[in-house]
Backbone:
């Protein structure tokens, strides 16, 4: 297991050779450092994401003590209250109820109606980058686009949006492996501040409802059917904001960094913009923004003769699954024309990313705007990778035009 070291900068720079070793070693391996069972192959990850013997939580069936786990420290409670009431960390029937309500805002028709707004905003952001002669692609295009879109959908005023990304970054720090106490303290502070802000916004929307998503969820909360509790409402809004831009931001900068390292593929894309849809899928596969997704074992399972007991935790390696040669021909090769591309970057099963259609629209819109309005976009300096494993991204991406 020496090759798999999620705290080693060399591994973080390029984890894919280590994944190849894991896949060659077997279908499941125990990783003592995090007390998790690693699953590196595509077929197993895909199947386990749909396996109801696993869950994102166990608290709908067991207490911490019954499950052989220790309750989180009391000082972390604000983070866990916020996180544990969002649909990503719930199981049926609560997950089903909340997802049904929220999914009304993410129907194909609803998302399709957002296309002109997303395209216009992407164009404006790229025009600004061009006018300045370049800059940081992350902070000037990749970040503001999805933040603005999801904030607009939820009804968060433009003047209130500055703290959204910092709050999200601090909360998402808790999804890394073995987060430090400093990381936990930042997540707790961000959880408190984010929750307080949303309580005030919800109170204002109760008095003056609009046609945005928060008002829609309030109506469901206050109605007679399918009620959302106040905490579910807050947690769902935070989840949508965090998930609505974290993956898209990182997919954008990871993708362009990959394109700059593969000038033949970038040249082909510049010559043929009809490749944009397949390019989005291939870049999501090639350098996966979410590398690992965890599940609890609710009922004993067996993988390739290895019995994994109830109470264990499984870590499904999305980045490894997306490079599995059993599924992807020449997986280490970036191929923007790849037709058969069943990547699992958006997960699968009941927790499949509800915002995947919107993310695809945003990624395609920013790519098209950059290709059309900044046709000579060039890397200005080699980027620094964030010291994270689970959520894979860059500190920035400096470019010239």
Residues:
């Amino acid at each position: 297991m020496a090759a798999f070291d999620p705290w080693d900068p060399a591994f973080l720079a390029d984890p894919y050779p280590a994944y190849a070793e894991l896949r060659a070693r077997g279908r499941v391996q125990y990783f003592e450092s995090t007390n998790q069972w690693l699953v590196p192959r595509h077929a197993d990850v895909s199947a386990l994401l749909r396996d109801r013997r696993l869950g994102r939580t166990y608290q709908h069936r067991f207490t911490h003590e019954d499950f052989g786990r220790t309750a989180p420290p009391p000082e972390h409670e604000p983070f866990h209250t916020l996180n544990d009431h969002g649909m990503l960390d719930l199981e049926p029937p609560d997950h089903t109820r909340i997802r049904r309500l929220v999914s009304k805002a993410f129907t194909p028709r609803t998302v399709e109606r957002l296309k002109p707004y997303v395209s216009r905003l992407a164009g404006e952001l790229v025009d600004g980058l061009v006018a300045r002669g370049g800059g940081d692609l992350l902070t000037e295009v990749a970040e503001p686009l999805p933040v603005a879109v999801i904030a607009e959908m939820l009804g968060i005023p433009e003047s209130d949006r500055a703290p959204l990304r910092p709050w999200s970054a601090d909360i998402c720090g808790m999804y890394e492996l073995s987060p430090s106490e400093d990381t936990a303290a930042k997540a707790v502070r961000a959880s408190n501040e984010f929750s307080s802000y949303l309580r005030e916004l919800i109170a204002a929307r109760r008095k003056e409802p609009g046609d945005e998503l928060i008002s829609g969820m309030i109506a469901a909360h206050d109605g007679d059917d399918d009620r959302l509790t106040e905490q579910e409402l807050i947690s769902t809004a935070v989840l949508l904001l965090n998930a609505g831009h974290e993956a898209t931001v990182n997919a954008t900068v990871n993708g362009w960094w990959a394109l700059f390292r593969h000038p033949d593929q970038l040249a082909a894309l510049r010559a043929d913009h009809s490749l944009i849809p397949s390019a989005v899928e291939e870049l999501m596969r090639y350098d996966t923004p979410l590398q690992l997704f965890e599940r609890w074992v609710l009922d004993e399972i067996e993988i390739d003769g290895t019995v994994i007991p109830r109470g264990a935790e499984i870590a499904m390696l999305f980045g490894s699954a997306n490079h599995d040669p059993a599924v992807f021909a020449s997986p280490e090769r970036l191929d923007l024309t790849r037709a058969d591309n069943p990547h699992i970057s958006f997960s699968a099963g009941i927790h499949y990313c509800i915002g995947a259609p919107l993310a695809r629209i945003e990624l395609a819109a920013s790519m098209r705007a950059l290709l059309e309005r900044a046709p000579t976009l060039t890397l200005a300096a080699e980027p620094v990778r964030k010291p994270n494993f689970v959520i894979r991204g860059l500190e920035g991406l400096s470019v010239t035009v």
In short: Residues 230-261 form the longest helix (32 residues). Strands lie at 29-31, 36-39, 54-55, 134-136, 292-297, 301-303, 306-308, 313-317, 378-379, 398-400. The CA atoms of residues 352 and 389 lie 21 Å apart.
